[in-house]
Design goal:
Guanylate Kinase phosphate binding domain, four-stranded mixed sheet, 8 helices, about 40% helix, nucleotide-binding, Guanylate kinase, Guanylate_kinase_CS, GMP kinase activity
Length: about 220
């Protein structure tokens, strides 16, 4: 059975940890919340079905006026990835310079010199145009963006029904070595501890139901502008 859970106690047990990555000038940049666009934040452990749900929303519901937030990364492009399409690709040095200049809404160093982050300037331009901006980010980034924008953003955590089911899905993908899968499982257990900090939890044990649950949450949020 698919479940949705709403949580109104945003950022409590993890508040001190989140504040480490909270932008220092959040008060100065609070004018961003005056723009007409809204923000939709999605986070989940790998294999939870988050990307499938988000891609379905983008493709099947153009009336929602959803547009991806394009993140920056310091990793090299993969395959056919293009700068400014999947990511803005920066060198580690250029990324660190933008960190020093406080240009990121949120960022994380996933591995040494492997950064991901969201530029304030890109988000500002999008919401100023009235676009509803979709963030597909890690749990810390999701919490920081929600904290920054408050009621102008909705945060949704897509959760697998169990760790056992998540391991099964990752194995069925057939794209990772067993060692990598176990690393993803360990990370997922950590990420699941952040779920109560999100506005809503969608438990994806049936994909079609999870899609409809997510659509209802977003539609209600956007209609309450």
């Amino acid at each position: 059975m698919n479940m949705m859970k709403q949580n109104n106690d945003f950022l409590h047990s993890n508040e001190s940890e989140q504040s480490k990555q909270q932008p220092e000038d959040s008060k100065k940049d609070s004018h961003l919340a005056e723009f007409p666009g809204r923000l939709l934040i999605f986070s989940a452990p790998s294999g939870s079905g988050k990307s499938t749900i988000v891609q379905w929303l983008m493709k099947e519901h153009p009336e929602l006026n959803l547009h991806f937030s394009i993140s920056c990364t310091s990793r090299e492009p993969r395959g056919t990835e293009q700068n400014g399409v999947e990511y803005f690709f920066l060198s580690p040095e250029a990324f660190k310079e933008k960190i020093a200049n406080n240009e990121f809404l949120e960022y994380e160093e996933v591995y040494e010199n492997r950064f991901y982050g969201t530029l304030k300037s890109e988000v500002e331009e999008q919401i100023a145009r009235g676009e509803n901006v979709v963030f597909d980010v890690d749990v810390k980034g999701g919490c920081n963006i929600k904290q920054f924008f408050g009621s102008q953003a909705i945060s949704i955590f897509v959760q697998p029904p169990s760790i056992e089911e998540l391991r099964k899905r990752l194995n069925e993908r057939g794209t990772d070595r067993q060692e990598v899968i176990e690393q993803r499982i360990a990370k997922a257990e950590y990420e699941l501890s952040f779920a109560p900090n999100f506005d809503h939890i969608v438990v994806n044990d049936d994909l079609e139901t999870a899609k409809q649950d997510t659509l209802r949450l977003i539609t209600t949020f956007l209609n309450n502008k």
